[in-house]
Amino acid sequence: MISILLATYNWPQALKLCLESLATQGDLDFEIIIADDGSGKETKELIDSMKTAFPVPITHLWQEDLGFRKTIILNQAIAAAHGDYLVFLDGDCLVQPDFVARHRALAQKGYLVTGSRVLLSESLTQQLLQWPSWNFQSLMAKLLGHRVNGGINKYWPLKIKLGDGVWRHYKKFVWRRIKGCNMACWKADAKAIHGFDETMTGWGHEDADFVFRLQRNHIIRKSGSWATEVFHLFHQIHDQSNAAENAKRVREKILAKARSVN
């Protein structure tokens, strides 16, 4: 079974659409573990109202809001997951109906997958948030217009889906296209590196650190582009005051590995 580890923080309107998009999956052999980094009561009320009639199990994990501590709540979600394969998703991302099926098709022992995202403009995001419910077909019907008008930044990866192959494999660690809002790995591999580095607090690069340590542990990175794209809702940029320090720490680990090899 697949466990979707869904990170969220104080945006219930977006989380509602995200959950509704997950409810439309053609492949329903999965569970959802919501990793909540301290949201208010509106988020809990939303989850409670949706979980009883939801087509797959939902577990809500919550921790006190003491600043950006996504790594800690995600490690709790990894521990709570019943599935042997983990798909990481953010609550401000909406998925296509074949999202789970595409990730399942790319799952392979000894590999992790880093997916990609389609960025939505502020105006299109506001339109979707006003919808009574998620409607993938309605969005796709106007997809070309959204691309021409700047509502989305990609078109063809949503229209053309490619299968697996060695062309997806990364030869070495690169920062590019690592997005914690859409990536996947085996639970055993995540546990082998002790999950996310909980000393990395504040927004930025905890996902790159996670991927680097998986690759350092001989897990091969595979691209999920042209298969697993998610729609990323527009929002203001997070507080990035810790980003530079987090990036420095990842670079130090990369350099340490390089020295050990040489």
Automatic annotation (TrEMBL):
Task: Tell me the organism.
Answer: Polynucleobacter asymbioticus (strain DSM 18221 / CIP 109841 / QLW-P1DMWA-1)
Q: Which InterPro entries did the record assign? A: Galactosyl_T_C, Glyco_trans_2-like, Glycosyltransf_2, Nucleotide-diphossugar_trans
- Annotated Galactosyltransferase C-terminal domain ranges read 172-219
Keyword Ribosomal protein present in the record's keywords: the answer is no
Keyword list, A-Z: Transferase
GO molecular function terms listed in the Swiss-Prot or TrEMBL record: transferase activity
Query: Any coiled-coil ranges, and where?
Result: none
Q: What is this protein called?
A: Glycosyl transferase, family 2
* Segments forming domain Glycosyltransferase 2-like: 3-143
The record's SUPFAM superfamilies line, in alphabetical order, gives: Nucleotide-diphospho-sugar transferases
CDD domains xrefs: GT2_Chondriotin_Pol_N
**A Pfam family:** Glyco_transf_7C
Superkingdom, taxonomy of origin: Bacteria
